[in-house]
Design brief:
The chain is built from 2 helices and 3 strands. Helix content is 12%, strand content 22%.
Length: 121
Amino acid sequence: MKNWTLSGAVGLLTLTLWASADELPGSVAEAIKLESADALPATDFYSSPTELATAKPGDLLRKEIFSDYALPAGTVATRILYHSLDAQNRDVVTSAVVLVPGGVRPVPSRAMYVLSAGGFV
């Protein structure tokens, strides 16, 4: 029987999106056009909150349930804005989407798992 340490049991999860060459844009201009066509409309949700001046890093500034994503049945999407700091330690507003799957968690556990994708500085 093997004894696993936490560092030995933790692995790196990599998500790879596969696309054939004919699905990829041929230029930066084409990529921008494709992104614009697929973008959700800008709403007041993303306007700069006035609370940023008095908030602390990590404070939730705004949240709303959002239903315009294509998600599996029962999944609830909540858009959030929160106070963060940039690489120069300046206040910034950061956005994220919290996805909560429908149904009952199959294995009772205290552990919570988070998958995050995006740019990190």
